[in-house]
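[Q] Does anyone have a clean structure-token version of this?
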Amino acid sequence: MTRIRKTEPRTDLLLRFGHLVGEWRARSRDRALLASLGHRELRDIGLSPGEAAMEASKPFWMV
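[A] Here you go.
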């Protein structure tokens, strides 16, 4: 018989926080990359320079 081990609430909280920090870092990296794209690349992905600038200027915690 297999026993299912529950994680400690503190461990679960640390795992969730680590995941959140990872999302923030990815969002920050993606927005920096978006800010570095030229007009042609932006047109290829369907964004105007203004839309890209608005998205790139958001803080990392905003979706």
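[Q] Thanks! Anything notable?
[A] The CA atoms of residues 20 and 52 lie 24 Å apart.
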